[in-house]
Amino acid sequence: MAGHSKWSKVKHFKGAIDAKRGKIFSKLAREITIAARAGGGDPNMNARLRMVLFKCRSANMPKENIERAIAKATGGGEGSNFEEITYEIFAPHGVALLVPVNTDNRNRTAAEIRSLVTKAGGSLATTGAVSRLFQRKGQIIITRDAADEDTLMELALEAGAEDFVADANGYEILTTPAQFETVHKALEAKDIKCEVAEVTELPLTTVPLPDAQAAAAVNKLIEALEEHDDVKEVHSNAASSD
Question: What is the CATH number assigned to the segment(s) 134-203?
Answer without folding.
Answer: 3.30.70.980
